[in-house]
C-alpha cells in the first residue's frame, strides 16, 4: 500500500480541504462470503479468489464535496474498472461515472439461463442519487456482451428444426449491445 495525504483547515477547524492518492499492487480478495456464493452460483471455483494487479485512485476534499478520480481496478484475469465520483456532504447527493469490462456474465445470471449463455460484460454508467437510495437515482449508460455463445435454448432448437440447420443449436455472438 502506498499513497499520499494532504489535509488542512482554517484556524477554526472548518473549511477542510485536502487530497491524495492510494495505490495497492498485487492484491487478492478471498475468504469472502459474497465470492463464495458467486462461485457456487456460477459453478466456477475460480471466482472464490479475485486477484488484482493494481487498485489505485486519487481523492480530494474541497469544502463539503469529497471526490474520487482516476479510479483504476485491474483484475489480473477478470474485472476491470475505471472511473470516479463525487459526494456532496451538505446536500447528501452523489454521482459516479464508471466503466467496467471483463465481468464474467455467467456469475450473475439465474442458473437456468447461465448454463446456456457464456460471455463477458462490459459497459459504462453515469449515475446520480441522493442519500443511500442508489436504486432511486437517475442516469444512463451502455452495456456490451462480448465473446458470447448461446447453447441449448428452446428458441435455438425451434430455429434448428424449422430451418433444418443444426448450426443454430450453438450460436456465437460476436457482439451484442444495449444503450
Salient structural properties:
single chain, nine-stranded antiparallel β-sheet, elongated, mainly beta, 179 residues
Radius of gyration: 21 Å
Shape descriptor: elongated
> Hey, roughly how much beta strand do the residues contain?
over 45%
Helical segment count:
3
Walkthrough of the structure:
By secondary structure, the protein is mostly beta strands. It has three helices and nine strands. Strands 1-2-3-4-5-6-7-8-9 form a nine-stranded antiparallel β-sheet, with no helix packed on it.
Q: How are the elements arranged and paired?
A:
Blueprint lengths: L1 E7 L8 E13 L3 H10 L7 E13 L2 E11 L4 E9 L4 E12 L6 H4 L2 E14 L7 E14 L2 H10 L6 E9 L1
Q: Concise description?
A:
With 179 residues, the chain is mostly beta strands.
Amino acid at each position: 500500500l502506498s499513497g499520499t495525504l494532504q489535509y488542512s483547515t482554517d484556524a477554526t477547524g472548518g473549511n477542510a480541504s485536502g487530497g491524495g492518492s492510494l495505490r495497492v499492487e498485487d492484491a487478492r480478495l478471498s475468504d469472502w462470503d459474497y465470492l463464495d456464493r458467486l462461485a457456487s452460483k456460477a459453478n466456477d471455483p475460480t471466482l472464490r479468489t479475485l486477484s488484482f494487479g493494481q487498485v489505485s485512485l486519487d481523492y480530494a476534499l474541497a469544502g463539503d464535496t469529497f471526490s474520487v478520480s482516476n479510479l483504476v481496478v485491474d483484475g489480473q484475469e477478470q474485472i476491470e474498472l475505471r472511473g470516479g465520483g463525487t459526494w456532496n456532504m451538505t446536500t447528501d447527493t452523489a454521482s459516479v461515472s464508471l466503466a467496467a469490462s471483463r465481468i464474467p456474465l455467467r456469475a450473475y445470471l439465474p442458473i437456468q439461463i447461465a448454463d446456456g449463455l457464456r460471455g463477458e460484460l462490459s459497459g459504462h454508467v453515469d449515475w446520480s442519487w441522493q442519500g443511500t437510495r442508489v436504486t432511486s437515482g437517475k442516469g444512463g449508460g451502455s452495456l456490451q456482451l462480448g465473446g458470447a455463445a448461446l447453447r441449448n435454448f428452446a428458441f435455438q432448437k425451434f430455429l434448428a428444426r424449422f430451418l433444418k440447420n443444426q448450426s443454430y443449436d450453438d450460436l456465437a455472438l460476436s457482439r451484442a449491445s444495449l444503450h
